[in-house]
């Protein structure tokens, strides 16, 4: 594996910016970092096979991590290994170096098969972090783009079957904590090391807070598919604000959440926001007719909605676009916006020890951005 030195960059990692910085990759990890001209001595010692990248005028960030993505490039995660590879490649062009692959509500046997497919790919594809079950344990009232015929309450048998099929690679499950059997399911998933997310829920403030107290640690796409903030019924969003261990996902495409409310989330939950795409098959594709699970979707001007009922059906967002929206439209600092794409989502799924930072010893995943925050180069494991 060829060593790489990227120099003269504005390095932003872990919420801190360093001017005229350099980073050295070797063996798939970050070997050293520094500032100024000290990289030259390392380059000389590394020999002619070391790639030298001049990043003058550009920003270097850890690779983006998307913990909630359903598809892209015309492919969906439910369509098998080749489709998933296309999804990963599509989003990698926009800075996503690692992704948790989300699955929509489906039949039990189908979901177990998809979990097994993703489990196998997690071993062979460095961009795949594991799976995210967005359903089927969701509230009908806030089901969004999930098939109402397939929604159900959790049972110990199905919970155990999901964990077995995923074979240790289920990273996240979204569920409605007010459903019968949800309390036991939260405990079972948390005990198995799965991050439980509250979402697609009609939960009250008290119900959501109880779920967070029981170990749930993510709020799925904040503001979407849940009761909003109300002065007498604060709901799950206020419960997440009040719970310091909870990560709040945000789909910041200018459609799902108003910029003022996106800014509010960053203010009220500083360091706890994870920007996600919730992207479906049409991301980086074209307007037209698609399927999201078993439901027909129409994409018009980049906005995906169910053909029947018109509910928003995921997004066509990429994480670099979410970054630009967060900084330019929402007034969030570049340091905080990049943290929401890197170290925060890594920590949310238990990978804060080796992903989401460009500190020595971490995976050599990086994104080089121009001054308008467009992606110029991407590295995964130093490649």
UniProtKB/TrEMBL annotation:
Record bears the keyword ATP-binding = no
The Swiss-Prot or TrEMBL record annotates one GO molecular function as: N-acetylglucosamine-6-phosphate deacetylase activity
The EC number of this protein is 3.5.1.25
CDD domains with a match to the protein in the record = NagA
Task: Please list the residue ranges annotated as the Amidohydrolase-related domain.
Answer: 60-382
Q: Which UniProt keywords apply?
A: Carbohydrate metabolism, Hydrolase, Metal-binding
* The family this protein is said to belong to: Belongs to the metallo-dependent hydrolases superfamily. NagA family.
Name of the featured protein:
N-acetylglucosamine-6-phosphate deacetylase
Q: What is the lineage of its organism?
A: Bacteria, Bacillati, Actinomycetota, Actinomycetes, Micrococcales
